[in-house]
């Protein structure tokens, strides 16, 4: 009983570690070459020297741009209390200029215990922001604007970016604008008037290397040797983990994993699944857990979809494939039915169904998104007449047919 | 969205859980409707928890998926990365997730993107449930918060979640002294979004889909678990900017063995039913393996199967099974092709409406017993004429109209045409091909009314009127009894989706219409018209044209409608008699 309890505690601990990005990225922060150190240097410089600055953090999704930034901001807030205030915007939520300024005003009000008016206009809010910037500058307080999904702010007229960066041109203000984007060309999206006001400082975030992945793995999975777990259990857990990590089969698994996608997020998803597979009665991680996890991560959605299809649906798919082989460039349900009748006439299959049944199967295929309409126009046309296309290639169709258990063997 | 304002939680059922496992619903708390008990955190919990065993036995063939989900959800208070549950429709995704939460007894918020059909309703319904707000008369059925923008939603959501979480912690501390199991288990709250695949159609820029998938990163609250349920696989959610994919969990379609287990549940006479399934399941599985469709097809068939039996409680012997099979056999093939009889209806509605439609048709099917040569529903006489004129206008080029409906020299014209078209069969075939590809054509209102005029004037049978109205357009023929208000009828037909309103013609600027009626339906309709026309001794080209259309149609439907064919030859005889 005691062991199971320990195991459950260990499971919860590891799961909460995986879900906590700031825990994951702490080991990367110590070296002076890391993005953490560079970013911290830049921001703390502008805080202490009271100057304006702007930076772009670029890199693929799931590489910890925001997580590292949050680490830096947390440390800065601890080092310089009352000198930094952070405004966070997200391109998904605030790409509309009006909405963004309102949100800035709201967050400034919350930060400084002011009354926020929902009714304030765009102009009011922008005035308010500029005067707040001036006030904060006089009080030697730096406002840090974090713009997540920066590329979405660059859509439209870029009024927000312009007014932010323009306000930073004056000596009285003291602000840092940090853009975060997964588009490497994010700075090219800016208008000329905005670009000229933007300092072209960029930090690139890359997926971790193999050694770093290894270190990260052990950092996440090993249990702390302190009072929270019984000493024996933690020692045994870590020893078993060490053995697994050293195993060449495990290295293989990690290699296939990072072969498809080597970002930290992908690794975390894999680890989460592996940890979920842990047997609580046994209480330790095994190599099997990692094997099942990699199997469930590597999916072939189209094949899975084909396996679910009924025989009639497969017939329709094959008919469409034959039509495509005949280089008929546009076809719809009626021509598929003609082909289906042709197959029936030449092979005398037992599966010949009425038109309405086929139409229903055809609609199932549409629902499964194995086929789709070629255009979105002609909504008023009924299903039979709208041209369709296959969404799977023959390379996927043939293995799919083979793996389907109910598929007739004549093909 | 729950219009009565009662909390949606106690009433939660899904299609499959209500149809397959009616026994399960009995365990639900009896309270609903009129007296509104004050909302408590208990509303976020399903009801009385069930054991793991009954959970597994309620869903045959889903053991792997249930155990996997339970492992992913983990022990109480363990954080969760977003989950993405997907699989074809009617595979038990929603009901299993809800029953798992009933088993775990943890608080959750369920919102389906099908009932919450736009972002605002989705946001508000989620917030209403979190804030324990009920829409009722007192508050004018309004939501707790008005929020349309994603930005507002995230702010409100964060507030509401914080409130709920502190409440949960408070309850946990209080109840720890008494019974720990009384409240919801643990400090986590789960947001479940069902039918996520529909969100993609809400907006072209895929902002909301993106938002939902990124919600976990935006909220940054480890106590909140997100679960998405979708009927399409994760690779169908394309996004130009890329999304962090949630953890996928697949629900594959049921296999034949599992289907057998499912249908055997709650049967009064399992032996009899299993012998029925032995016969029927295999051929039907070749068409579809969806439980909802199969169950509607099986219930009338089973009645038929049981017809020769006087006592339904008997255990069938081998001999009896054979006898019953012989009785059923002729019906199998017919019902295989009639399995989706409702699909032969002309209204091919958008996917979203289909379920409602299916249900309606099932009801109609249960009533049953309608004559095959009748249409399954009643519309007014002039609407029927309007329908057939729309069909004619859609399927024929406008150039043919004059030769068909001109009462002076129509017949000669037509003969001449016959000869000329007889020469080139190839041309005809290509035209046929084009019709198959392009579908029914569109036509302006005037043409429809003109054809309608021609048909109805014949129906009235008075020659003077015929002369007067010939060639005259418009709906001013108010003296004809049938045309009470043609335009009104037309708009009714448009609303019923028999005739669709297309875009306006760029040159003429008037709206164009298109008949969406299928051929089978048109056939039934024209038979009706023919019969009513035959009642009146008038001879017109329209008659022969209608019969011509019928013959063409019948040659296409040879296989399906032999009954119709019989009826029709009969009526042709009649027709000849009338003509003589």
TrEMBL record, chain A:
GO molecular function, one term: ATP binding
Residue ranges of domain Origin recognition complex subunit 4 C-terminal in the record: 216-397
Ranges for domain ATPase AAA-type core: 55-201
TM region positions: none
Keywords: ATP-binding, DNA replication, DNA-binding, Nucleotide-binding, Nucleus
Subcellular location(s) of the protein: Nucleus
GO biological processes: DNA replication initiation
Pfam families documented for this protein: AAA, ORC4_C
InterPro entries for the chain: ATPase_AAA_core (IPR003959), ORC4 (IPR016527), ORC4_C (IPR032705), P-loop_NTPase (IPR027417)
Cellular component annotations (GO), alphabetically ordered: nuclear origin of replication recognition complex
Function: Component of the origin recognition complex (ORC) that binds origins of replication. DNA-binding is ATP-dependent. The specific DNA sequences that define origins of replication have not been identified yet. ORC is required to assemble the pre-replication complex necessary to initiate DNA replication.
Entry's family note: Belongs to the ORC4 family.
Record protein name field: Origin of replication complex subunit 4
Organism: Tetracentron sinense
Automatic annotation (TrEMBL), chain B:
Chain residue ranges for the region called Disordered: 1-38, 405-433
Domain Origin recognition complex subunit 5 C-terminal: 380-523
Keyword vocabulary terms for this entry: ATP-binding, DNA replication, Nucleotide-binding, Nucleus
Listed GO CC annotations: nuclear origin of replication recognition complex
GO biological process: DNA replication initiation
Pfam family, one: ORC5_C
Annotated Low complexity bias: 15-24
Subcellular location, principal: nucleus
Residues of the ORC5 lid domain: 273-325
Localization annotation: Nucleus
Keyword ATP-binding attached: yes
Domain Orc1-like AAA ATPase: 58-219
Gene Ontology MF: a single term: DNA replication origin binding
InterPro entries reported in the protein's UniProt record: AAA_16, ORC5, ORC5_C, ORC5_lid, P-loop_NTPase
Entry similarity comment: Belongs to the ORC5 family.
Protein name (record): Origin recognition complex subunit 5
Species of the source: Tetracentron sinense
Organism lineage: Eukaryota, Viridiplantae, Streptophyta, Embryophyta, Tracheophyta
């Amino acid at each position: 009983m005691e062991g199971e309890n320990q195991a459950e505690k260990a499971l919860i601990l590891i799961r909460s570690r995986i879900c906590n990005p700031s825990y994951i990225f702490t080991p990367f922060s110590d070296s002076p070459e890391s993005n953490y150190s560079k970013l911290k240097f830049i921001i703390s410089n502008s805080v202490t020297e009271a100057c304006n600055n702007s930076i772009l953090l670029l890199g693929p999704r799931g590489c910890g741009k925001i997580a590292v930034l949050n680490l830096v901001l947390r440390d800065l807030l601890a080092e310089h209390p009352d000198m930094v205030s952070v405004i966070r915007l997200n391109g998904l939520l605030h790409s509309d200029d009006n909405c963004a300024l309102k949100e800035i005003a709201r967050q400034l009000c919350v930060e400084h215990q002011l009354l926020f008016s929902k009714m304030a206009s765009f102009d009011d809010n922008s005035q308010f922001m500029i005067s707040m910037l001036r006030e904060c500058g006089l009080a030697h307080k730096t406002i840090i604007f974090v713009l997540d999904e920066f590329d979405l702010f660059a859509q439209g007229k870029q009024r927000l970016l312009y007014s932010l960066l323009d306000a930073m041109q004056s000596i009285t203000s003291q602000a840092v604008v940090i853009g975060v984007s997964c588009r490497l060309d994010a700075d090219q999206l800016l208008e000329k008037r905005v670009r000229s006001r933007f300092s072209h400082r960029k930090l690139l975030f890359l997926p971790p290397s193999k050694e770093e992945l290894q270190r990260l793995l052990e950092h996440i999975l090993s249990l702390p040797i302190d009072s929270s777990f019984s000493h024996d259990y933690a020692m045994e857990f870590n020893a078993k983990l060490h053995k697994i990590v050293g195993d060449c089969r495990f290295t293989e698994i990690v290699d296939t994993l990072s072969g498809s996608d080597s970002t930290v997020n992908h690794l975390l998803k894999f680890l989460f699944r592996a940890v979920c597979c842990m047997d609580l009665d046994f209480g330790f991680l095994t190599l099997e857990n990692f094997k099942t996890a990699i199997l469930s991560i590597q999916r072939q959605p189209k094949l899975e979809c084909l396996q679910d299809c009924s025989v009639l649906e497969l017939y329709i798919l094959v008919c469409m494939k034959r039509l495509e082989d005949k280089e008929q460039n546009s076809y719809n349900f009626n021509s598929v039915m003609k082909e289906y009748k042709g197959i029936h006439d030449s092979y005398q299959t037992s599966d010949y169904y009425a038109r309405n049944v086929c139409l229903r199967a055809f609609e199932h295929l549409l629902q499964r998104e194995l086929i789709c309409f070629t255009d979105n126009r002609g909504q008023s046309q009924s299903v039979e007449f709208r041209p369709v296309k296959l969404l799977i290639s023959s390379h996927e169709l043939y293995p799919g047919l083979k793996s389907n258990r109910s598929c007739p063997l004549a093909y | 969205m729950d219009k009565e304002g009662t909390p949606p939680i106690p009433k939660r059922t899904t299609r499959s859980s209500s149809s397959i496992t009616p026994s399960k619903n009995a365990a639900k708390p009896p309270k609903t409707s009129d007296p509104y008990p004050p909302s408590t955190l208990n509303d976020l919990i399903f009801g009385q928890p069930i054991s793991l065993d009954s959970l597994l036995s309620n869903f045959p063939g889903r053991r792997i998926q249930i155990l996997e989900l339970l492992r992913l959800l983990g022990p109480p208070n363990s954080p969760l990365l977003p989950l993405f549950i997907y699989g074809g429709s009617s595979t038990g995704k929603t009901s299993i997730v809800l029953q798992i939460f009933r088993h775990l007894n943890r608080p959750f918020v369920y919102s389906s993107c099908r009932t919450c059909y736009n972002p605002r309703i989705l946001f508000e319904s989620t917030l209403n449930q979190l804030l324990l707000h009920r829409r009722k008369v007192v508050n004018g059925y309004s939501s707790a918060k008005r929020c349309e923008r994603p930005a507002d939603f995230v702010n409100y959501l964060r507030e509401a979640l914080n409130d709920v979480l502190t409440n949960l912690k408070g309850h946990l501390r209080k109840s720890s002294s008494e019974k720990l199991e009384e409240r919801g288990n643990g400090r986590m709250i789960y947001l479940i979004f069902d039918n996520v695949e529909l969100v993609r159609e809400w907006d072209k820029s895929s902002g909301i889909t993106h938002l939902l998938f990124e919600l976990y990163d935006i909220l940054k609250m480890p106590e909140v678990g997100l679960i998405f349920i979708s009927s399409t696989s994760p690779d169908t959610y394309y996004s130009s900017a890329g999304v962090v994919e949630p953890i996928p969990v697949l629900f594959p379609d049921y296999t034949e063995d599992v289907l057998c287990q499912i249908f055997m549940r709650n049967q009064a006479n399992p032996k009899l039913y299993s012998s029925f399934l032995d016969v029927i399941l295999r051929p039907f599985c070749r068409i579809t393996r969806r439980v909802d469709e199969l169950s509607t097809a099986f219930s009338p068939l089973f009645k038929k199967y049981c017809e020769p039996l006087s006592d339904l409680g008997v255990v069938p012997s081998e001999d009896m099974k054979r006898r019953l099979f012989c009785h059923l056999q002729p019906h199998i093939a017919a019902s295989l092709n009639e399995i989706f009889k409702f699909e032969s209806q002309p209204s091919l509605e958008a996917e979203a409406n289909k379920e409602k439609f299916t249900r309606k048709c099932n009801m109609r099917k249960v009533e049953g017993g309608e004559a095959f040569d009748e249409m399954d529903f009643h519309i007014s006489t002039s609407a029927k004429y309007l329908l057939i004129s729309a069909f004619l206008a859609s399927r024929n080029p406008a150039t043919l109209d004059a030769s068909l409906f001109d009462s002076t020299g129509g017949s000669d014209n037509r003969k001449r045409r016959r000869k000329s078209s007889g020469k080139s069969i190839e041309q005809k075939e290509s035209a046929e091909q084009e019709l198959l590809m392009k579908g029914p054509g569109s036509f302006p209102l005037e043409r429809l009314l003109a054809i309608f005029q021609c048909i109805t004037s014949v129906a009235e049978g008075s020659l003077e009127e015929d002369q007067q109205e010939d060639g005259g357009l418009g709906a001013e023929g108010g003296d004809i009894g049938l045309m009470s208000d043609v335009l009104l009828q037309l708009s009714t037909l448009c609303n019923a989706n028999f005739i669709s309103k297309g875009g306006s013609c760029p040159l003429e600027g008037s709206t164009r219409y298109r008949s969406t009626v299928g051929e089978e339906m048109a056939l039934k309709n024209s038979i009706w018209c023919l019969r009513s026309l035959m009642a009146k001794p008038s001879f017109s080209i329209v008659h022969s044209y209608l019969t011509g259309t019928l013959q063409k149609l019948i040659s296409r439907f040879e296989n399906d409608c032999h009954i119709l064919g019989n009826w029709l030859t009969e009526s042709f005889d009649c027709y000849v008699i009338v003509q003589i």
